[in-house]
Structures are given as C-alpha cells and as structure tokens.
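INFO batch 0412 | record 1 of 1 | parsing
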Amino acid sequence: MYGHQGKILHVDLSNGKIWKEDIPEEWRRLYVGSRGINAKLLWDYCKDPDITWDDPRNIIIYAPGAVTGTTAPCSGRTSVTTVGCTTGLYLKSNTGGHWGAELKFAGYDHLVVHGVADKPSYIWIDDDHVEIKDAKDLWGKDIIETDTLLKKWHGNDSKGLYIGPAGEKLVRASSIQCSLYHAAGRGGGAAVMGKKNLKAVAVKGTKPVRVKDPKRFAKVAEEMRENLRNDSGAIGLHDFGTAGSIAAVNELHAFPGRNWQTGYTENVHPISGQALVEKGYLKRRVACFGCTIGCHRYSVIDEGPNKGIASGGPEYETFGALGNGPGIIDTEGVLLLNELCNRLGLDTITAGTVSQWAIESYLRGVLTKDDTDGLELDWGKIDETLKTVEALALRKGKLGNLLADGLKIATKKVGQDSYKWAIMNAKGLEQSNVETRSAKAYALAFAVNPRGNDHLMTETFAEFGSSPEAVEVIEKVTGDKKWASPHFTEFRAEIVRWHEDCYEITEALGFCVFTSTAAFGINPDNMARMYEAATGIPMSEDEMMCTGRRVVTLEKAFNITRGATREHDNLPWRLMNEGAASGPLKGEMNSQEELDDMLDKYYALHEWDLKTSWPKRETYEKLDLKDVADYLESIDKLP
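INFO prediction complete | emitting tokens
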C-alpha cells in the first residue's frame, strides 16, 4: 500500500490481546486518514451513548497523518481521538513532535487501545513486535523522568508518548505529552489513558513509507516548501513563534487578561515571543518531523534563583492563559508555570483558565481562605499561582480537588453564579485565548466546535486579513476581499465552513494546521494533488474538501448520540453578557441574537436542521453516511 502503511494496530489492555487490521480501501477514499479514520473508528466502537469516558469500552486512538513519514513538509502531526472526560463528548486532540512518524515507520497508521489494564502498563512497539509491559517503575514519574527511563530501556532512537502525574490522577486538564514538549493537550485525553492504567506508548520503527508516484509527489512537496518559504505568516512563526503576535493582538485590545475582564495590558512585552529572544531565554527553535518552519521554542533560565529551569515553549496560549490571564506580566514567572505544566502533564490553557476563575472567585468572596488551603489568591502573584497549578495537577487539598474536575463541575459545586465568570461554554471546555467578542468568525467556530470552545478544530485566522495570503483566502471563500475583517458577521458561516473542512483534511494528511490556516502555503488544491501522488487514489480539490465535511458531520453525529443540541453551540456567559473592556470595540459582546443569526446560516450551509442543529437524513446520505443516519433514527436522533 502507498502513503498509508495500511495497518490498524489494536491493543486490548484488559485481556492482553493484540491484533492487526487492514485499513479498508473505502475508508482511505472517504476519510483519507488520521483524524478522519479515527472519527470512523470511534463511531464504530463507541457510538452507544452509554459508553462514557471512563468506561472500559471507551477506546483511545492515536494516528499520524496519511503522508506523515514522507518528505511532505510540516507533516509530523498525530491525532488522538476518544470520548473526552472534560465534556463527555467527542474529543480530538493533536500533537506534533516525532512520535507519529515513528509509528508509521513501525508499520502502523492507527493504534487503537481498548479496555483497562489491571496494573500500570505501557505499550512497546518495535516494528512487528508489540508488547504490553509493566509500568510500575514509571507510575508517579513526571514527564522528563518517564522519557529518560523509556530511552534507557529502549534506546535513544525510540520515541515516547506519555502522561504525567496529572493524567494518572484523572485530572481533566491533563495533557498527553509527546517527544517531551509537544502535547495533545486539550480535553483531558491523558485522563482517559490514566483510567486505562496506560502510562506510555514507546515506539521504534524501521519500515519506509512508500508513495505511488515519487516524481509527482516530490514536485508537489517542493511547491509546498516554496510557498511556505515565501509566506509572510510562516516567517514570523519561525522568528518568534506563535507568541510573536501578542503585541499586535494586545494593540487591538483583544488579548484577554484577568479572566477576560481586560483586553489590553500596559507593557505586555515581557510575555511575548520577542522578549524570549531579546532577554536570551530562547536557546533554540524546535521543529516537528519534516517541518520547514520551526515555530516551537526551547527556553532556559540562565541565572538567578531559577537558574537551570528549562522547557519547551512558552507559546501564545501559554503566555495568555498563565501570563496575562492571572496578571503575571513576568517572563520568568510564565517560564516557571509552563515548565511545571510540561513536567506534570497539564494543558496550559485549562490550567490557566481554572486558576483565573479561582482568583476571581476568591476576590469575590465566593471561595474562602479555607477553600484555597490558605492561599491568598490575587492577580499577579506568581508563587500562589504556581501552588494553585501544582495542587490542580496532583489533586492536592480542597483547591486542587475542586479545580481538577474542570470548571463545568467546579461551578456546580460552588454555585453562587460562579458560572458567569467561568470561561467555558455549555460543552464544558475552558476557552482558549481568542477574543471572540471582536472576532466574529472565531465566535461562530468556537460555538460549533464539537469538542468545546477553542481554536484547534477550526482556526479562522484569515478573517483578520493580516496578510495578503489571508485576504486571498477570504476573497476565495466570500467573493470579495472586503470581508477580510473580524468585525463583520456577514459571510462568517461560509468562512467557518471552509476553514473547518480545510482544517480537517490538513490533520487527516498529518500537516500542521499553521501551514494551511495561519500561514497558507499548503492548501486544499496541493493537498489533493499530494494525496493522489502518495496513494494513487484519484482526488480533486472539491473531493478532498468533501472528505472534510463528511468527517465534521460524523463528529457532529457522535455528539448527538450524547444529547448535544443547538443549545450546546454557544459561548461563555461573560462573553455573551459583558462587553469588551476597552479599545475600538469597547462594550462589544457576543449577543445571542448575533450568534443565532450566524448559527442559522451555518446550519443552512450544512443542510442541518435549524431548530435542533442535527443533520438531516438526506445530508448524511449525500456524504455516504447512511449507516450513521440509520443508527440515529433508531435512537430517535434525526430531525
């Protein structure tokens, strides 16, 4: 088989059974790979609504992209799919690094883990040799310690994917770490691994990934590389990482601070990508497998009381959630918090968001000093925030146990209208740091995101029109470049639908989404040509985008089995009811009327029912998902 290795590896931790399955040719045409085939597998195994995140019947699937392991640029990404613990709904997370390519080299496109081990375990894959091994010496270890031991046992050329103490303790903010500092961070996938007693998956592979038409493949790959070399967004990502945009976002009064009560911060420079470079913290730029950009950071504190602290990052979201959010405008303060999260295995976005909620709740008198285990929480207090994050990761004390289950549960326990300043939507995921009150396509994208309100399912960065390439995308989607502004509500449905389809196929192939929805050197046309050259499967641009729509619809259907309706497609209370604090759009908010209008247009574009948001039978059948419609009809979930 070409492009794909053609194999799905299954490991059942409950009974020790290991087996391999061929990928059906039809799946390669309908779902392409990675995120797409993962969604199909999750549907087939877990569509029964009684299967919860902590049920032994829940599976977790790891899959590098369809062209990962080849010379395709920036194609080292891996999708992880399961029933999520934060929302109880569909969860797809995604990570970079080198683990995914190594799984392909071992001969597998997907690893599906079933059941629950009776003791801490890890999976060792060495080409055709697959073994479930005892993890007693790994359990309780942090990420760095785990990586060190796995390399000692299996060689420095092996690649590891693992959870830290937070995942072991089923913390819903826990993150699956990969190649040390890359993370499938959002939604608590690490807690699913922890529930399965699965500490790690170590891989070593030696098998090449072949392509059907090497000359054509190489030509498309070089075209992509040339596009990225010339893309203005890609250049900035290399120089300063994602945090290079913080100053510009702050000037727009769109950089959320103090639990989204502010949008602008004086002297924000210390928590920026530029500061990492100028102050000498940045030691090297790090690239995932096959990457030509190198947007990841590796930062070290060289002097003072924190000398020797080192970690990957921080990125934009970390500087936002653990810097501006809790009012810590201090480079080393964020470096310390970031290192703690990376070591213990925490999603920095959720860790920061729940910490901000705790600070505001304490300042409002909703949480007492007894509730915080004696901590006097306030904005800008580094030591107290470090202790809060550590308590969260280890479920330590009253505060740690309250925060460890996420804001959806914490606000119900605390009451007193505390949901009003909890930055999450009805699905329950804590929101990433995009100011949706002034970015309307993002607002719609966040609302309809099947895993909750964040940017890593449909990133509509082009709506800002911040580069010629972005404006060109908006003109292609809407017919007029004038709509390349985040403040319009017109054509947001079209912009979101195009981006969600593009985002899905990007991940299905294993490309980094920065290359297609933040920079734009990789696009649906060259992705379709590359897939055809790699696999020999005929694929036009329209057909490729249709696979994206098919998967988006299947992900939606999965949530419908769990009771999701239109009411779940919303935004945090604060953003829907409190206006932006400052700037040219002071007072602007995401009103229900405005959101409803965009939702109606979005559902209509998808041919989904406006009242329920559920796809219609004819929509499923157009997308070759008749079996999905049949099942939903059997449980009375068709409109």
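INFO post-check: The chain has three domains: 7-204, 241-417, 440-634.
INFO record closed
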